[in-house]
């Protein structure tokens, strides 16, 4: 037996700050994950152990200190180019498949049972803080992206500094909105500085379509633990309806190198900006934008909303307004994943419009996450 037949190494892929590499060792499929941050590696190990009591996760065979970081050696689940992830079910160019329906039924049933079984009021210091609280603290991502900085709303279309947005009316698809940029940032920081208990439950914490395997299993555990329930919901809904099909493949295409069908569907999932215009006579910014979402993504969002969000909300927050519960988490996902200044002017204008709609008193999450031509069922 040759060395080559005993050890086969696949292509190395970068995901944010981590490197992943598939390896076959003596016929055993493994996945190597390298991270430079020792604290993140420890969180991943602890998070996976907590999650394994309730969710299907790959076996962790070993974790090793190596030069410059940590190496985690996982069981590699079946997969390959264009297969193995929820993403691949969503990349069907046609109507949603029965496979996607079955998958979403199982996904939402699993989450519903485990969230309701583990949910409890929890003080913010005791929840996983990475995706929300840590980004709002002084020196966090909100400060890194936006503190002491300014940018144009949309260079060449709406040449107004974002800091001045509060002095103008936004007409978005004919509806009047108001967005005070500085006040929104202050409100987000203040919201995530409060100490009142929130409903939290045991989840993976970052439920994206690349962190959910097909057949159903969970990857990536540094945010696993007691997570805010509305934060969990906002994360999936925003990723499925905006990040996964549009923004991430546009601005981080390397993450989808093994799932090329993603790129063919960007146009089907990217909102169409039909007009961006500033009327100085009325101090109004006109934004006409047609939301677009492929049929499989609409089906996934609808199933998640009706089969998970609504039943859990009815149990944990009977009679409360889901819009107010989801709003701060959604706003943080909008502002805290990509620096808006790094987006193209057109994309930035669309995202600011989406932020204004989320901050509006009329914000309705049941329709916000699905295009109007195929709305989610009303709550």
Task: Tell me what you see in this structure.
By secondary structure, this protein is α+β, with helices and mostly antiparallel strands. It folds into 2 domains: 73 residues, Phosphorylase Kinase, domain 1 (2-Layer Sandwich); 283 residues, Aminoglycoside 3'-phosphotransferase, Chain: A, domain 2, CATH 3.90.1200. Helix content is 40%, strand content 22%. It has 14 helices and 17 strands. The strands form 5 sheets. Strands 1, 2, 3, 4, 5 and 6 form a 6-stranded antiparallel sheet that branches. A 4-stranded mixed sheet has the order 11-10-17-16, covered by helices on one side. Helix 4 runs parallel beside helix 11, helix 8 runs antiparallel to helix 11 and helix 12 runs antiparallel to helix 13. The longest helix has 23 residues. 40% of the residues are buried.
Report the radius of gyration as a whole number of Å.
21 Å
CATH architecture of the largest domain: Alpha-Beta Complex
N→C terminal distance: 62 Å
Number of structural units classed as domains = 2
Number of helices, where a helix is a run of at least 4 consecutive DSSP H or I residues: 14
Helical amount among residues, as a percent range?
A: 40-55%
Low-confidence stretches: 373-379
Mean pLDDT across all amino acids: 92
CATH first level of the largest domain: which class? Alpha Beta
Beta-strand proportion: 15-25%
Which fold name is given in CATH as the topology of the largest domain?
Aminoglycoside 3'-phosphotransferase, Chain: A, domain 2
What sort of overall outline do the alpha carbons produce when their principal axes are compared? globular
Number of DSSP strand runs: 17
Largest sheet: 6 strands, antiparallel
Structural class: alpha+beta
